[in-house]
C-alpha cells in the first residue's frame, strides 16, 4: 500500500492566486472614483476675482494674447475654467493674470506647466528658480521664470494648488494624488500665474508680489482658500 504524496505545487499556485486576488482588490480600492470638488462649493473664477482691488483695476485697453490652437486644445482637456485679465495700477504698472481650474488632476490630466506652455508659443525660458512669496496670509511656494521672445522680456510667477495645497513640482503633485487616492478621491487643481512685460525683472517680481497681496485681501476666505490652499505662517 502506497501513501499518496500531496501535490505541493498546488499550494504554491493557491498562494499565487490569493496574492493576485489581493492585488486586484487593492487596485480596485485605491483607484480614485470620486471627484474631490464634488464635496466643495462650485468655483466661479469670473465672480471670485474682482475687476478692481487696492490700486489695481482691469485694463480694458489690453486684449489678451491668444495662445496657439494646439496649446489651447490641451488646456481645454485639462481645465474646466480659465480666467485671463490684465490689470494696471496708478503707477502704470501692468500685471497679466491667468488662472485655470480643473476638477481632475489625475495622471491623465495633470496641470500644464508654464515651462512647457511658453516654449510652445515661441518663447525661450532664460531663467527659472523656485522661491517664495510672503503675504500676510502665509508664505506661498512659487516658481519664477523669465521668458523671452525677441525683444519681449516676460517675468512670470506661478504656483499650483492641488487638493487644497500649494505645490510647484511634479513630486508634490504626485504626493497629493496619492493622498487623495487613498480616500478614493481625485484631487482638483488650480494654476495661478501672473506675468509682466518688463526688462527690469526684479522690479516686475516686486510688483507682482504687491499685486498678489492686494488680490488676496480683496477675496473672501473661501476664495482665498481656493487660490492659495492651506499655508503655513
Outline the structure in words:
The protein has 233 residues and is an alpha+beta fold. The chain has helices at 8-30, 45-48, 69-78, 114-120, 170-181, 201-218, 221-228; strands at residues 34-35, 52-53, 56-58, 81-89, 94-102, 124-135, 138-149, 152-162, 165-167, 185-186, 189-195. The strands form two sheets. Strands 2, 3, 4, 5, 6, 7, 8, 9 and 11 form a nine-stranded antiparallel sheet that branches. A two-stranded parallel ribbon has the order 1-10. The protein is globular, with a radius of gyration of 24 Å.
| Uncertain stretches | 5-9, 22-38
Q: What is the radius of gyration?
A: 24 Å
Number of helices: 7
Work out the strand percent. 25-35%
Total strands: 11
Sheet of most strands: 9 strands, antiparallel
Q: What is the overall silhouette?
A: globular
Approximate helicity band: 25-40%
End-to-end Cα distance, whole Å, is: 82 Å
On the 0 to 100 scale, the average pLDDT is 78
What structural class do you assign from the helix and strand content? alpha+beta
The topology string of helices and strands comes to HEHEEHEEHEEEEHEEHH
Amino acid at each position: 500500500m502506497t501513501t499518496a504524496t500531496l501535490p505541493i505545487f498546488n499550494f504554491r499556485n493557491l498562494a499565487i492566486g490569493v496574492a493576485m486576488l489581493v492585488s486586484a482588490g487593492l487596485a480596485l480600492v485605491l483607484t480614485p472614483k470620486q471627484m474631490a470638488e464634488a464635496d466643495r462649493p462650485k468655483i466661479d473664477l469670473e465672480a471670485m476675482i474682482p475687476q478692481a482691488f487696492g490700486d489695481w483695476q482691469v485694463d480694458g485697453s489690453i486684449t489678451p494674447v491668444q495662445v496657439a490652437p494646439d496649446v489651447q486644445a490641451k488646456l481645454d482637456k485639462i481645465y474646466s475654467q480659465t480666467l485671463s485679465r490684465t490689470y494696471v495700477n496708478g503707477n502704470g504698472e501692468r500685471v497679466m493674470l491667468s488662472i485655470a481650474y480643473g476638477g481632475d488632476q489625475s495622471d491623465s490630466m495633470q496641470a500644464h506647466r508654464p515651462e512647457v506652455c511658453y516654449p510652445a508659443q515661441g518663447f525661450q525660458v532664460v531663467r527659472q528658480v523656485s522661491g517664495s512669496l510672503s503675504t500676510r496670509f502665509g508664505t506661498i511656494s512659487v516658481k519664477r521664470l523669465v521668458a523671452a521672445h525677441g525683444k519681449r522680456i516676460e517675468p512670470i510667477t506661478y504656483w499650483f494648488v492641488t487638493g487644497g495645497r500649494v505645490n510647484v513640482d511634479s513630486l508634490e503633485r504626485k504626493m497629493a494624488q496619492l493622498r487623495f487616492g487613498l480616500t478614493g478621491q481625485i484631487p482638483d487643481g488650480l494654476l495661478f500665474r501672473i506675468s509682466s512685460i518688463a526688462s527690469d525683472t526684479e522690479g516686475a517680481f516686486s510688483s507682482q508680489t504687491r499685486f498678489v497681496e492686494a488680490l488676496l485681501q480683496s477675496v473672501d476666505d473661501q476664495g482665498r482658500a481656493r487660490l492659495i490652499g492651506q499655508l503655513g505662517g
